[in-house]
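Thread: quick sanity check before group meeting

JM: Hey all, I'm pulling together slides for Thursday and realized we never actually wrote out the predicted structure for the chain we discussed last week. Dropping the sequence here so it's in one place. If anyone has concerns about the input, flag it before I start.
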Amino acid sequence: MQETIEYWLVLAVARTLGRMPRGLARLLANGLAWAVFRLHRRLRQVGERNLELTQPNLSGEERERILRGVYRSLGWQLVEFCRMPRYTAKNTQGWIRTEGLEHYLAARARGNGVLVLTGHLGAWELSSFYHSLMGYPMGMVIRRLDNRRLDDFVNGIRCMHGNRVLHKDDFARGLLTSMRAGETVGILMDTNMTPPQGEFVRFFGIEACTASGLARVALKTGAAVLPGFMVWEAAEQKYVLRFGPELEFARSDDNEKDIVAATQQCNDVLEARIRRYPDQWLWIHRRWKTRPAGEGLLY
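JM (edit): ok, ran it. Output follows.
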């Protein structure tokens, strides 16, 4: 019964926001985001702690500004997700554009598969959806929702234009199969992991247990790896989906050392993009929860 109630509540919100004019829906989402920011103290404390750890020189006012921006960004993404079933290549032209698409097309043309390095920055749900809307469907590595009816509903929207989901509980096999078929898969690589799925590498100057699957698959299959992020550009009043140049991973006789080095390289790319758009990254996630042996907890 709880799952059924959750499902119908979410469906009601999704349909309401999806049918509203976009500006009005954003205003409503802004109010909801502000309320959550004020009322959900634990998440706010996690965000404050992350900013304290990674950017100790920021003032309290600057940290609050960033965190409020995070909630606003999440609210706006909720609006976009609810409206995605209505989107077409034509009616999104005025407020979404791509940049660096040639990097992706060149990588795809090689035929060894493409791994898109991305994270919880900007509008990540809209990013993969828009990618398929442009005619380039991709796989997405995701975690199943506990509520299966909601999981089916959300994935039904994600996959409307040819995208497919790879679940984290069996993603290694799915990644290898996709790369051998020359397909594209996007990987959100900025969440806390636990060994042996992750390696400890630096992220904002702190050791962070980071998913190493992307590096392992890329080094094994020769798949191309390139950054891809969709962020809101306030000056343009548009979302911009940017693809960076393909990453070059060093190879030596020590495969494990190469994996760690490649994983660090990915983290460096993520960090640079987050520093550019700090109020659009998910600071309210306990990114540094897993600690190396002998270190104390950070939260």
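AS: nice. The longest helix spans residues 60-83. The mean pLDDT is 95.
JM: adding both to the slides.
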